[in-house]
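Morning F.,

Quick status update on the modeling queue. The single chain you submitted on Monday has been processed. Sequence for confirmation:
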Amino acid sequence: MNVLGDNIKKHRLRLNYSQEFVAEELGISQNAYSKIEANQTKSFTIERLEQLAELFETTVTDLLGVEKQINFNTTNTNDHCNSNTGYTNGDVHYHAASEVIELLKAELAEMRKERAELMAIIREISSKMKG
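Structure tokens below.
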């Protein structure tokens, strides 16, 4: 299930936007944008998600398919619970939340890398100033 990509495509089509138009608005190629809809990009950021939400006149949570509250069933009965996963309310919410977590993890990793690079530059400048 590709909740994020499907929702992005749904909103693009709702506004009768072409992939080319959206890509141009985002400053990326049409091919890069098509990978967003297909959930095949590794460089998707929260900022990009915010850009899309603004362009599509919606919210980030709407694009993600996440409601304000995710309700998990604790009764574990066949009538109310998916026996394979242990949660209800549809796996849409669960997978959308998982996509958000993965986006945030990737963004955090990138920020840590940038911080380390900046710290190395600061140490280098500091040592030149002392020496």
